[in-house]
Records
---
Amino acid sequence: HEGRLWGGRFAGGPAEAMFALSQSTQFDWRLASYDIAGSRAHARALHRAGLLTEAELAGMLAGLDRLDADVRSGAFGPAPTDEDVHGALERGLIERVGADLGGRLRAGRSRNDQIATLIRLYLRDALAEVGAAVLEVVDALHAQAERHLGVAMPGRTHLQHAQPLLLSHHLLAHAWPLIRDRQRIADLDRRLAVSPYGSAALAGTSLGLDPEAVAAELGFSASVPNSIDGTAARDLAAEAAYVLAQIAVDLSRLSEDVILWVTHEFGFATLDDAWSTGSSIMPQKKNPDVAELARGKAGRLIGNLAGLLATLKGLPLAYNRDLQEDKEPVFDSIDQLLVLLPAVAGMVGTLTFHPDRMEALAPRGFSLATDVADWLVRQRVPFAQAHEIAGACVRFCEQNGLELSDLTADQLPQIAPELTPDVLDVLTVAGSIASRNGRGGTATAQVRAQLAEIATVLAEF
Ligand code: ARG
């Protein structure tokens, strides 16, 4: 049957278009080394069950080693007649050890438990790689935050000036979601560490094979308690797609800040030449393409997640061929992030900040109004009234073309009798920042504590 894994009950082969639709080697070949690892463990299980002699096991393992070497060197690859990675590798094994021995490996397993196992093995490795790349971005944010500790900037809500912040505090606010993403990967890995091998087609294996032994040999912590679930579930692929999409969304939000900061109007930062691009017509341009591609790819990764969930939602138990559609979206999300993350780390790590510009803007837009209100509260004025008085200060400044920090001692009584010249002491960016000294606040000591906390987290991974 030209290397096909089925055919006994068919009088003829599949139509060309049928085969073209069915074929998956173009994307599942990346699972080849995991398929071979699974085959080694399965061969040992067959041997323990008395279905392979000592000599047959040795021949099988030697054949698998040769096949593995040929796959790695590129000497062996899928042929146009191979339907999927499993069929291609069985053909390769038979070419190396003969049909009598090679044809024995498939006993007691199905492509259904194979593929479900391979995707978990692959995801465990690929997500670890993504996780390491995520921590490189965290590292870049941490280094910039450390380097610029003490630099003030305008903090915004609704994109409007709100209260002054330390630049470091803002940068670390982008680090924490990425740290949680790394933790999500670690958490998901515990669920991925359960092997479906031995579930066979759906009902479990009948040949006395030991799924727990196979699981242990493949580095899993257990095997699945339910063979139907083992072959039919893809929630873990969807969870991976979610974590990957969340990483992209977190990079996208960071990128949106960078895109704003490097505009002429903000002028908070300049991109390094190595991490920006020019225009083919406008000679002056220096564009934030890394950040824009991050923002763009976030949409793509959200699509991969949404598409996979839509594929899964109507499927009855157990295995359905629809499940073959789980791979490309997840592979794509991983591939995109493995290209994107190093670029974002490079962009962030090489940004040049302009502290003078940020500090000049920090008190603008009446961003010290809360400090006036808080000062009044410390003078025992009820907060509701303090809010009114601080609002009156803003109105006064707006009418006279002033900022709150421009107010003078003789102007204060015109606004409200509660305002004594002492209030001028809090009308500074440095005073405002220093006053927010509770845990998690923007005061320098708190930001220094965060830097230490992140360094500890980074050391743990
Ligand atoms: N290519 C299939 C997948 O990705 C492997 C399992 C095929 N099983 C089957 N009975 N056709 O899901």
Note: The chain is about 60% helix and 5% strand.
---
Amino acid sequence: MTDPGTSRLPRDDAKQQQLDAVRIGDDGARMTTDQGIGVEHTDDSLAAGERGPTLLEDFHFREKLTRFDHERIPERVVHARGAGAYGYFEAYESLADVTRAHFLGEDGRRTPVFVRFSTVGGSRGSADTVRDVRGFAVKFYTEEGNFDLVGNNMPVFFIQDGIKFPDFVHAVKPEPHNEIPQASSAHNTLWDFVSLVPESMHMMMWLMSDRALPRSYRMMQGFGVHTFRFVDAAGQGTFVKFHWRPKLGTHSLVWDETQKIAGKDPDFNRRDLWESIENGTFPEWELGVQLVPESDEHAFDFDLLDATKIIPEERVPVRPVGRLVLNRNPGNFFAETEQVAFCVQNVVPGIDFTNDPLLQARLFSYLDTQLIRLGGPNFAQLPVNRPVAAVHNNSRDGYGQHRIQQSQTSYFPNSISGGCPVLSDPAHGGYVHYAERVDGNTIRKRSESFKDFYSQATLFWNSMSSWERRHIVDAFSFELGKVDYTQIKERVLGHLAQVDHELAAGVAENLGLPVPPESTPNHGRSSPALSQADQPSGVATRRIAVLAADGVDEVALRSATAALREQGAILEVLAPHGGMLATVSGDALPVDRTLVTMSSVLYDAVFVAPGERGVTALTHNGEAVHYVGEAYKHAKPIGAVGAGVSLLEIASLPGARVADQGDAVVSDRGIVTVRDLAGPSVLGDFGSAFATAVAAHRHFDRALEAVAA
Ligand code: HDE
């Protein structure tokens, strides 16, 4: 591990150069007060006599306590828990045909970024792996000022109009009378709200799907959600939807696993992001855009301004326009990840808004929330928020002003300061709002074009593979199973029946409630791009637990796992004890972790190391036997060679075919085994078969129901 925050970026990154000016280390430094006065003693307060009262004049004591008393700022009202990192965005080509945004103007142009991922409902200290939407907020420090693309890992939202946001958030947050439950949507008030607000049904399908349980921030998509507008140099607009696609594919955990991880490692997603950057395996996404000419505004059977709708990718393909690479961890969580302030209204020339009523509300809310959260109007001067573009205007005062603006005038127009700062014309980065024609009566009414609440929920359901559907039924059943009011469950079942009858019937059966009558027939359309079933995947950065004990055959172990190592997997040897393992050849194999400290839920796959004596010890170790059963239950790849196969037999995995004899590699639904290691190439064959199983992520074609784990 390198020191946290050590620079990995080239020195020509304008944002990092700016930050370097305020980065401070304590190496070799002497302790001082905030006023720079040397502190010679910090363990005892100044007192009148050895057992006497503390003296008010002890300025160091008072300063230390005062600073401590004021350490906390309000956590974000939503998205309180998160993790952030720096990196860059690199454009693939000029998009000047649709937008005048400079950062998208040239092939290879790089823009520094800070990205923050988050869960939505939980408090700052809540677990990472709860069922929830994930925030995916990107601050581009462009030469024309900051552009904040404040998105989520799901492409739609719960509500259509921002005026409903406080209602929705109050419903999903812990209930107000007892502040229970933390970071969970499985409770009365959320489902009461959902049952009464059917526009939420499409998003609820996403929330009940595996998308709400990402394996890693590095393996989830991001979406701008709203329809935004690109504007070219001539002022011509084009509707645009933003998509982030992870290079490692979109992959999820399973529900039982997420609940266990929440206890075993509440920082699971944070740690994963941090470690992958420290290890130099930099997370990467591709930015894509769906473009719709203004003339096609009404060409769809939904409204482009309705944030509960997607534009199916089969209808409007996603055009790749650049890539995002995260390559540097923050050096100070509070200063950077906590104080970063994303504002949806931060756009650069060439990017503009639409009349989506959810977006319009956000244009107000983000600035407003930063004022209370960060204590005043100068939050944009905080190092992580500062643009790399020059800032000049006539705003001067307010809490926390860090700049010393020198001019005599702070108004416009002026003649005393030569009129400065003078206005920026478009040729000098001046932002000109899109000249949209607006005409209408003042009215409080949802547009009729927003009123189809179910078609796209059905589209989502139809696009799922059979195991994804199973998970959705299970999720609705779990969540509604936590609801105390039958009428709420029945109302939700009524909505589900409008989405798909089989879905409603499955959930009703699990809840022990009458199956609602079939109402709307399923329209039968699907969008294959919505499924996670056939995602690109790979072995790189996958974490493999290698179960071993004294008596391990480390030579065979190395050959069997060579392919995984070559493809960039992270293998960790787990054993009943720490330190070193005695191997069959008389050498010593270092143990990375003990079995009791690391559960199977913290790994992507399990490999049982060969060696008669070692495996015998593992078969008598409840932790090891449980490891294999639990990995099987969570559909994870499991590999074993030689004597290692017997641990799989002891764990009795229903329906799992394992090698019984000979040197043929058996690969059955992600369980890869070979018994006889005599043949020269058998371990190589095993290695590549196991790597293929690991690359597939999970194997849901197993009989999982009967497995206890
Ligand atoms: Fe947010 N949202 N939001 N939101 N949101 C906040 O801003 C809000 C919405 C999203 O890592 C808050 O700084 C309203 C959609 C992310 O710092 C607040 C509405 C999407 C983050 C706020 C929405 C998001 C926030 C809380 C409905 C996806 C975390 C703290 C009109 C496109 C950013 C803060 C970070 C944070 C308001 C809906 C994404 C209160 C009023 C839709 C990723 O301003």
Note: Residues 543-695 form a domain with the Rossmann fold fold (CATH 3.40.50.880).
